[in-house]
Amino acid sequence: MLLSFARLSFRYLILLIPGLLLGACGTDGSGTEEEDNPYAPTPYALALPKNLPQTVTIPASNPLTVEGVELGRKLFYEVKLSRTGTQSCGSCHQQSKAFTDGLAHAVGVEGAPHPRGAMSLANVLWETSLTWDGASTSLEQQARTPIENAVEMHQLLADGVRKLQQTELYPPLFQKAFGSSTITEDNVLKALAQFERTLISANSRYDKYIRKEGTLTRTEQLGLAVFNNHPGEVGGIFIRGGTCHHCHLDATGLFSSPDFFNNGLDVAFADAGRASVTSLATDRGKFRAPTLRNIALTAPYMHDGRFQTLEQVLDHYNEHVLVNSPGVDPNVLLSNTPGGTHLDLTAAEKTQLIAFLHTLTDTTFIKDSRFSDPFKP
Predict the structure, then answer these.
(1) Which residues pair with 107 in a beta bridge?
(2) pTM for this predicted structure
(3) Are residues 358 and 296 in contact, defined by beta-carbon separation less than 8 angstroms?
(4) Nearest in space to 157 (alpha carbons), one of 80, 214, 102
(5) What Å distances lie between residue 134 and 127, 148, 215, 244, 288, CA to CA?
(6) What φ, ψ does residue 306 adopt, rounded to 5°?
(7) What is the structure's pLDDT at 33?
(8) What is the pLDDT of residues 123-181, one digit of tens each?
(9) 138: which DSSP letter?
């Protein structure tokens, strides 16, 4: 803003001194593009749903603006950021699938599968660890990885910037969003991060129930209880539950966790998970607990997409957790049978829990025009 003020002040000065006018503005008396299009971005009014955390961290160096968010939306769906011009961020994060892609392993521009599946981008505004292993801690940092990764979009961001600079579309949009028509890598990443911070999902049937705007069926309410209950004796009564809330935090309304867990999938780890970032043996096989919001839309499940249905996921936790998996989280070893080694939910409890998980589907989120591909009619 100080730079813009200085430019405006200088322009006012040369208008008062005719002798300087030609030298300052050129023979036709015109100003620069930046002078003709002053930098005055509009603050973006971010509405936080009342049943989600009201504290968010947005970098001071990248405040949300209407112009920045709209630019980020276009860049999110821009195929020029890929080497072959065939893929965008939106290829692996499709709105209709709650910003996943329906594949066990994401597929890049060369046709090679990624070792992991695409995670949902719903409510990443609140996430402090991104991707399955938490390798990124900010959306600005994370946005570079899929663009430059050889098995994803496979193009240096600098090459993408050059392509964008050569278009008629983007230089004016960057001028409006960041005060310069010269496109930079940092501003591409900032715009993408701004758009992704607006991807808020909080209008499911569950949300309406929490806000007392709607109801859940008796089966769904029983499923919510199973979700939140910790199996064990309380006051002489044994409480049955699925202990799901330990890793998918219902208390925050996000149904995710900033922590990493070994959920007993394997004894030997083909993917080191969190250990690939920390190099700690104790982190081998640990992955982020993804959000359960819109979970019915984001199959297949787990970091490698090994489970096709929610029923298969529940069967794993109920019957197939590998108790000898090194560092397995103790919460997935809880049992509804005193002294048992598996969760041991009944068929009815499984049905109730699946019914509850379906209440987390937010149909308005997957149809919201603010998040859709602007290049499609």
Answers:
(1) 113
(2) 0.89
(3) yes
(4) 80
(5) 10, 18, 36, 21, 7
(6) -75, -20
(7) 53
(8) 999 999 999 999 999 999 999 999 999 999 999 999 999 999 999 999 999 999 999 99
(9) S
